[in-house]
Amino acid sequence: MEVVFQRPQALTEEKFSYCPGCHHGIIHRLVAEVIDELGIIDNTVCVSSVGCSVVNYQFFATDAIQAAHGRAPAAATGVKRASPDSIVFTYQGDGDLAAMGTAEIIHAAARNENITVVFVNNAIYGMTGGQMAPTTLKGQKTTTSPYGRDSKREGNPIRVCELLNSLDGPAYLERVSVHDPKHVIRAKKAIKKAFQLQVKGRGFSLVEVLSACPTNWHLSPLASIEWVQKELMAYYPLGVFREAGEVDGEC
Amino acid sequence: MKGNEAIGEAAIAAGCRYFFGYPITPQSELPEYLARRFPEVGGVYLQAESEVAAINMVYGAAATGARVLTSSSSPGISLKQEGISYAAGSELPCLIVNIMRGGPGLGGIQPAQSDYFQATKGGGHGDYKVIVLAPASVQELADMVGTGFDLADKYRNPAMILGDGFLGQMMEPVDFAGIKKSKIVEKTWAVGCKKGRERNVHTSLYLDPEELEKHNIKLAQKYELIAENETMAQEYLTEDAEIVVVAYGLVARICKAAVEKARSEGIRAGVFRPITLWPFPQKELRKAVAAARGVLAVEMSMGQMVEDVRLCLEGRLPVRFYGRAGGMAPTTQAVYEEIKKISLECKGVE
Fold first, then answer.
1. Which residues in chain B have their CB less than 8 angstroms from residue A104's CB?
2. Inter-CA distances, B89 with A62, A71, B82, B95, B194, Å
3. Are B38 and B19 in contact (CB under 8 A)?
4. Is B46 on the interface with A (CB under 8 A)?
5. Among the residues of B176-313, which ranges form H helices?
């Protein structure tokens, strides 16, 4: 019998540690499929961050280093500068990238550092138990914004792609979602393009993936998908914000 | 050549080709020197957005097996402590230079030795140690770059050169021909290209308490080994010394002049200079005070190394402290007066 669907080589056999309905699993799979398709498993270095995906070096079957909270783009810069033939990607959540690591992500993008960033935005701190994130929506209740995020008190959410798009540096910025198959396919194309651009030495690429966190949103997985569409996508519009040059071949 | 620049040239001689840093007085001549020199030798110089980013770039480059250097001065080294803790936890070798200035806080920009605790007791969070070397001349500053890299590689641990602003800023003749081109050990653990081998992963995360304890025990055993094998110290006229002055770095040179003056006045004094601050040269100090009746610790701080001196001597001898701070340096005359005082005190005891 012909095998038509299997675990990508770039994923280990380790079981994911994510909650039911969480989108990290889908996003991991997309990254792994792209690594397989581009044939870069032997020279890819994953830079893990701090958050729910903190142990994703157990899941990606590549070389990996674990970076401090928010510092993955700096650590990835060190890897890439010292080992330019490696394909280096960070995988960061919104707490990691848009709060603690704001300086690191802005400057990596401004330098047009030739790395790829997979940025998973679920508008909340997952691992620490549902606290307010820099991307938490106005009115959204979290354990540290229990009355709903009030921009007068807690400030406003940060739109990372738009923020980085003000810089000359980045080669590619796109926001995608994985709430239905159509969008999953689009997300994979974006991730693939981001890695291809790095292979071609075009510079900094970031794909922001809107993601559900049923556990900390206190919603069912299905209701979470609706919330992504109605609320997250309303504040964080999908689309390509920056694309420097075409990538050869299919994508 | 200026001390800071000598570090840069010595790094090139030692085979280092990666530097990530951030400007701060009084060490900025080192990044400036490497920004100019590294392109000539195919090195990578990168000015980071902060000391925090710089040390994390070092962490990434170290993971690829590269010889990598960063430098800063006291407030910047505080910021680097996060990354140093991660490098120690992940056992990634690197060399960090701290050209100290006075603190706490923003303090000042003048030379000091007030980061001894931070350098030798860990510095960041968690149970770890950094190998700390304390040069006393520009030549030694240059020589210690290679030594620091070698020790870092040998033990897969961060190493630090702890100098003061005087050393960084002062000019002395320096000979680079003598710097041994050390053999860079093969790093089978490096990330980058995993063709034909198992994948390499570097992390300091151990969520299982039993695993983390095992990791801590393994690190502690490594530190014991370093303490056993790598202590260094220099002695001057200690053999018959009744008063031993303990000082590190440039201060030891001031103390040497004070000891000569004391000897000319009939006080048998000597200088003991720890070269490794961690591991502290305990065996060597105990031997050096064999004939002594009193010990004087001199520092450009309010008293930090003196605690290690007292721990080492376990109350067997009176230990007096003399320190200046904030960018003020002890004078030969002041140290001589202190030697005289402790000499009289010790006579009084007998």
1. 49, 52-53, 56
2. 21, 16, 11, 15, 23
3. yes
4. yes
5. 209-229, 250-264, 282-288, 305-313
Coil, helix or strand for B78? Answer: helix
Distance CA B138, CA B324 (A): 22
A-B contacts (CB, under 8 Å): 134
Domains of chain A, earliest start first = 24-243 (3.40.50.970)
Mean pLDDT by runs of 10 across the 350 residues of chain B is: 97 96 96 98 98 98 98 98 98 98 96 98 96 98 96 97 96 87 84 94 97 98 98 97 98 98 97 98 98 97 98 97 97 98 79
Encoded amino acid at B111, one letter? P
Bridge partners of residue B231, in order along the sequence = none
d(CA B102, CA B116): 12
**Cβ-Cβ contacts under 8 Å for A176 (sequence gap 6 or more):** A183, A186, A187, A190, A207, A208, A209, A210, A238
Q: How far is CA A183 from CA A120, A186, B116, in A?
A: 15, 5, 56
Residue B191 to residue A63, Cβ atoms within 8 A:
yes
**ipTM metric:** 0.95
Residues of B in contact with A99 (CB under 8 A): none
pTM exceeds cut of 0.80? yes
Kind and range of the H or E run holding B243: strand B243-246
What is the rounded distance in angstroms from the CA atom of residue B214 to the CA atom of residue B33?
42
What gap in Å lies between CA B8 and CA A247, rounded to an integer? 41
Interstrand relation of B131-133 and B276-278 (parallel, antiparallel or unpaired): antiparallel
Contact across the interface for B56 and A104, Cβ inside 8 Å: yes
Chain B residues within 8 A of A48 when measuring between CB atoms:
203
